[in-house]
């Protein structure tokens, strides 16, 4: 948020993806109070996406230097709001919460419920600063050294669901991290790189590239190399259903898919391997990207986020990356394989960890979720 931002009410951009952007592109739909001049406010980022850069950035390197020039201006304490302007226009129409909740629950019938992540601002603050297991208070020290080890999931902050749903802002997390930098400078710097540079680079892409979820949104070199290798022979071809049900010949990939399904959050390192294998095992890059996005958005609690589209585009279409040694199927897109993972971390320990996750009793079955959702909405109204 800009300290010098105009005090006139604006329209919050929750994310620069298609649905949220409609509100910016068509202002004046009765939202701001009478007389107020509507204008966009980026409520998603530390630096408003249009102030960070006026164009689509090529890589983290080009973006980082621009961000570093303006970050101090924007990464400041939140201003006090003197008054809340009362709403004096028509009230929104009654929403049929029962039907809405039933629809959402039935769409997600085959998605297991997770219980490690309590929603809400208080829970988000607990995850950030809690005395029991808070990221900045208890776990930040190992972020620099351990964050790329899938067997050490608690080395990561675990903040992505809260950031995605706006239960906490990246600005709050960054300000609190900066206050503790003296305790663990390398880890705090690494965290800020992900939280600000990488996260806002993802927004830069989705904001300036209308094809952010399609191969058409990749750079020319990547589209060419993917096209050149689209017809290459694949060792395996799996259907979306086989992938969704973790029925591949690779136990490590199956474990990552199951971690996502049963934990609602796959480890960040595994997300790269997972998406790259989908490129290797499907009939072409378009299909690979659409399956990766479908699964990512269906099962990840932090899914449907610019970071997700960019993560899939990075893995499958080389976005924000460079060309690598040419090889079958991948062309010049960076390659990852099982042997590399085996050298990096204890693959068997990760597979065992996921097996334990899958075996854990689930809090509620889908049909109970439906009932309790209906009960909840009823008691809210009573
Ligand atoms: C194929 C693929 C799919 C992904 N899907 C999603 C998704 O749907 N939603 C999502 O939020 N992230 C996604 N990511 C990015 C990253 O893996 C997650 O943000 C991270 O694992 C979330 O866990 P955390 O909050 O514990 O991470 P931490 O390492 O603690 O990071 C803190 C925060 O920094 C940001 N961040 C971290 N890594 C990245 C990154 N590579 N790019 C952009 N921002 C980052 C996130 O906001 C994250 O919450 C994806 C990455 C890949 C390769």
Task: Describe this structure as you would to a colleague.
The chain has 382 residues and is mainly alpha-helical. The chain folds into three domains: 1-43, no CATH class; 97-208, Serine Threonine Protein Phosphatase 5, Tetratricopeptide repeat, CATH 1.25.40; 215-359, DNA Cyclobutane Dipyrimidine Photolyase, subunit A, domain 3. It is 52% helix and 2% strand. It is built from 19 helices and two strands. A two-stranded parallel sheet has the order 1-2. The longest helix is centred in the middle third of the chain and has 24 residues, at 185-208. Residues 1-8, 22-30 and 366-382 have low confidence and may be disordered. The structure holds flavin-adenine dinucleotide. Flavin-adenine dinucleotide is lined by residues 147, 156-160, 163-164, 194-195, 198-199, 202, 268, 271-272, 275, 296, 300, 302-303, 305, 307-308, 311-312, 314-315. It is an enzyme of class 4 (lyase). Its EC number is 4.1.99.3. Belongs to the DNA photolyase class-2 family. Its cofactor is FAD. One of its GO terms (molecular function) is deoxyribodipyrimidine photo-lyase activity.
CATH architecture of the largest domain: Orthogonal Bundle
Distance between the termini: 38 Å
Question: What is the CATH domain class of the largest domain?
Answer: Mainly Alpha
Q: What is the overall shape? A: globular
CATH superfamily of the largest domain: DNA Cyclobutane Dipyrimidine Photolyase, subunit A, domain 3
Bound compounds, please?
Answer: flavin-adenine dinucleotide
**Helicity, in percent?**
40-55%
Total separate domains: 3
Give the low-confidence spans. Answer: 1-8, 22-30, 366-382
- SSE class: mainly alpha
Question: What is the averaged pLDDT score?
Answer: 89
Radius of gyration: 22 Å
Number of strands: 2
GO molecular function: deoxyribodipyrimidine photo-lyase activity; DNA binding
Protein name: Deoxyribodipyrimidine photo-lyase
Keywords: DNA damage, DNA repair, DNA-binding, FAD, Flavoprotein, Lyase
InterPro entries: Crypto/Photolyase_FAD-like_sf (IPR036134), Crypto/Photolyase_N_sf (IPR036155), DNA_photolyase_2_CS (IPR032673), Photolyase_Class-2 (IPR052219)
